[in-house]
Amino acid sequence: MNFDQARFFMVEQQIRPWDVLDQKVLDPFLNIPRHQFVEESKQSLAYSDVELPIGHDEFMMAPKIEARLLQALDIDETDTVLEIGTGSGFLTAVMATLGKSITTVEIHADLQEVAKKRLASYNNIEFKLGDASHGWEDGKQYDVIILTGSVPEIPQAYKEQLNLGGRLAVIAGQSPAMTAQILTRISEAEWETETLFETDLKPLMNAQSSEPFSL
Question: How far apart are CA 79 and CA 24, in angstroms?
């Protein structure tokens, strides 16, 4: 299989038609070998318009979903990013090329270990292990926060963890009707909401429960 050609077709036939036209976002999708972030047996599907299983009943988001969220987040080279759900590590890699630093949280230790190996060449990624389905209390504020699984309601903790002008990407609601949104903090107590598209995404582990699971 010609992975370079598959990557080009992914961008031209899936991502661009979804109104993702920002070259800053398109370049990492063209340059980062997505097939290296999945099991060898699934590499032929790495550039397809599907959610790929990665273990623990978890999935990679479809490329066009990832790209659309990233375009709306408009990550800058000075931005600090918090990613909830490292998963395969592919989205982490893309954001590491866009932002200043990435803190990425994963609940499954084995998925994190695999992602660490795939991301070994990046020096601006900090890995954390734990349940961040309801919040991640690390005492830090971030310019960008992204939740890679859906939540029934947007956790207030993440809204509060944004710097002024910071953006939160989240897919919220109940299956099959969920909404991808970008929340921008415009004051200490105000957030502006932009609705991007309707979709259906597997929830973050433990996001459906009222209390976070304790490791």
Answer: 14
